[in-house]
Amino acid sequence: GTKDFVIQVSQNPSADIFTGPCTGNLFHPAGPPAVVPNYERKAYKIMNLDMLTLYFTRYGAVAIFVIVLLEYMNMPGFPAGVIMPLSGVWAAKGNIRFLTVMLITLAAGVLGSWILYGLGRMGGNLLLEKYLKKFPKQREPIERNFDLIRQRGCFGIFLSKLIPMVRTIVSIPAGVLRINFMKYTVSSALGVFVWNLVFVGAGYFLGDAVLAYLS
Asked: How does pLDDT run across 48-90, given as a tens digit for each residue?
């Protein structure tokens, strides 16, 4: 079988050495170990970037799609805000194309938005009340979403997709209010695209420095 992923501290105080069962451009188990600066080590430790990198190495684009999808479904514990900049870094290093990352994250974001929209549309206020009983802290942002959508319509949905903590749950009020599906899809997709472009682009253009910032 493969050996467990190992992080070792080198004698050089400015860098860490890590090795593992992965292959490809990011890891070199068959040759000299990769040298990782201290700020990358901290990012790996705090945000579990080693696990995300391992997933990407094993499952490629599927890992990006699944994590972003679950995050847009408002599932806790799935760091799309980390995987998207990290995928931008991978694209800059030639492990995946930038356009491919954008298409994957856009598709995952739209699909996750559709699922919550469908739940809100089918379940209506009854489902919404059950949801808010389980997650009472989200009552205030959801109520603000209702007001924004009523006042601005589809433009309000687009704006909500650009607001942290609101961008994922806005799909539920949109479904409860029975916003036209095609209009919802267009406005939601535009917001998802802009948000994802910022995060993926940050990783692509800023490189590993963005991971140090996120840590």
From this structure: 566 766 777 777 788 889 889 988 988 876 666 778 888 898 8
147: its two tokens: 């007001």
Give this prediction's pTM: 0.69
Among residues 209, 7, 215, 190, which one has the least CA distance to residue 88? Answer: 209
For residue 92, report the phi and psi dihedrals to the nearest 5 degrees. -65, -30
The number of residues in the chain equals: 215
Phi first, then psi: give them for residue 37, nearest 5 degrees: -60, 160
Residue 206, CA distances (Å) to 34, 50, 80 in order: 20, 19, 18
Neighbours of 146 (CB within 10 A): 17
User: Which phi-psi region, left, alpha or beta, contains residue 8 (left: φ > 0; alpha: ψ -120 to 50)?
Assistant: beta
Side-chain-side CA neighbours of 212 within 13 Å: the count stands at 9
On whether the CB atoms of residues 87 and 105 are closer than 8 A, the answer is: yes
**H helix or E strand, kind and range, residue 100:** helix 98-134
